[in-house]
Amino acid sequence: MAALKYSRQRESIKEFLMTRTDHPTADTVYENMKSIYPNISLGTVYRNLSLLSDLGEIKKLASFGGADRFDGRVEPHCHFMCTECGCVIDLETEDMQDIMKRAGEHFNGIITDCSARFFGMCEDCMKKEKN
Amino acid sequence: MAALKYSRQRESIKEFLMTRTDHPTADTVYENMKSIYPNISLGTVYRNLSLLSDLGEIKKLASFGGADRFDGRVEPHCHFMCTECGCVIDLETEDMQDIMKRAGEHFNGIITDCSARFFGMCEDCMKKEKN
DNA sequence: GTGATTGCAAATGTTTTGCAGGTTG
DNA sequence: CAACCTGCAAAACATTTGCAATCAC
């Protein structure tokens, strides 16, 4: 069992994700980290994102079509992706526990987690559409 | 606008997906197609899966962690993935339209599609756990 | 015959991994 | 100093694409 040791890089990656609400990809994290650690490698970014995700300190949003995205917000919540511009937005939805409970009613296994994604067109793209 | 032409390969791929309920990956489809068309290429499988998905004749289940999976069942329904064995099972859940409607209540864009995934342990893995 | 489809192979994009050196506790 | 972590580069995957030959209409 690997004991965890402090790393500036990991700390910065987590802090960075906390400030963002747009669910950046590993590459975006990497680009932003470079301004603090010019020599940081993409491998380190991936390793830390994966580690933080395993620890439950961040959430990995498995493929919305392209590269995986990462979310500093860990409470269960839903996501919306605009099929026009590709942006990913948090949705304030009803209690996820409730959805999970109802989904498991006709199922013989155990449901412990849930990820709901909605697709459509975001507010900004709808405005552009009108022009 | 490309006019669609018949292809045996595409037909077989669709038929194959209709017979399966385990949401195979492109590679699994490819392996199975090889018994009918020994020279079929993986590229052809990907091209046809993508085409069928665009036509709405099959559903692409974007990354459950590894490779994308494909589903011959197109009515809206939820999926469960076992974090132990990786199997993906259909879930009979409440009306998806209803979930979409409620998710959009505090949202200014338009929601047109939804994909809900549940995670946990499947019945088979629970039995093995007990031993 | 025209244009869509195919097999093949090479290219692309994303993520993981081996290794030698540096850092943490 | 032992174990973890890093940067770098190569490898591993999944998927897409260019091309010349083939097939459907």
UniProtKB/TrEMBL annotation, chains A, B:
The keyword Glycosyltransferase does not apply. It holds the Pfam family FUR. Keywords: DNA-binding, Repressor, Transcription, Transcription regulation, Zinc. Signal peptide: none annotated. SUPFAM superfamilies: Winged helix' DNA-binding domain (SSF46785). It comes from the Bacteria. Belongs to the Fur family. This is Fur family peroxide stress response transcriptional regulator. It comes from Blautia caecimuris. The lineage of its organism: Bacteria, Bacillati, Bacillota, Clostridia, Lachnospirales.
